[in-house]
Amino acid sequence: MRRSDKEITDLETIHAIVRGCEVCRLGLAVDGEPYVVPVSFGFNGESVFFHTAKHGKKIDMMAANPRVCVQFERNVKLVTDDEDACSWTFHFESVIGFGSVTELVAGRDKIIGLNRIMKHYSNRDWTFQGPSLDSTRVWRVDLDGLTGKRSESKG
User: Fold this and answer.
1) Nearest to 68 by CA among 41, 40, 36
2) Alpha-carbon dihedral of residues 69, 47, 24, 60, nearest 10 degrees?
3) What spatial distance separates the first Cα and last Cα of the chain, rounded to whole Å?
4) Which candidate, 89, 40, 70, places its Cα nearest to that of 147?
5) What is the pLDDT of residues 50-79, one digit of tens each?
6) 22-35, pLDDT tens digit by residue?
7) Least C-beta-crowded within 10 Å: which of 13, 25, 40, 130?
8) In the structure, what pLDDT confidence band is assigned to residue 155 with cuts at 50, 70 and 90?
């Protein structure tokens, strides 16, 4: 990280930032063509879980290249200056991770992944069955690691 003064090295703080986010941005790339898409997600400290429909661009790109990037941010605030445009900035906390995505195909694994996602938003477990479970694809990103960054006011 270029700005080590902004780097977050404490893993618990990094995990707290991820758990405090509402959206995960999933970055994909195939043949030099990037694609970033927001997804709802779950997190267990080692992996990120998300779901998709049966078909789509994300799925095509993950099939071609299972290496992905995930990005999270929270506490974003625009800081302005009435006199100096170059003093405008943002305060934020962000986390970026890289890993490999795998589809969870067994029913039990899909339920675990979906419950991880729902627990992130509702703090409870759910029952999944029938057509809704069959029509949903569930994915897990096994993370190589996470890096955190914070930019905040000095006063």
Assistant:
1) 36
2) 60
3) 24
4) 70
5) 999 999 999 999 999 999 999 999 998 988
6) 999 999 999 999 99
7) 130
8) very low
Burial class (CB in 10 A: 0-12, 13-18, 19+), 88: exposed
Q: Phi-psi bin for 116: left (phi > 0), alpha (psi -120 to 50), beta?
A: alpha
Q: Nearest to residue 56, comparing CAs of 37, 42, 71?
A: 37
Read off the tokens for 93: 């906390």
User: At 152, which helix (H) or strand (E)?
Assistant: none
Residues 6+ apart with CB under 8 A from 132: none
In single-letter form, the type of residue at position 139 comes to W
Strand intervals (E) in 40-88: 42-43, 47-52, 67-79
* CA atoms of 114 and 101, how far apart (whole Å): 15
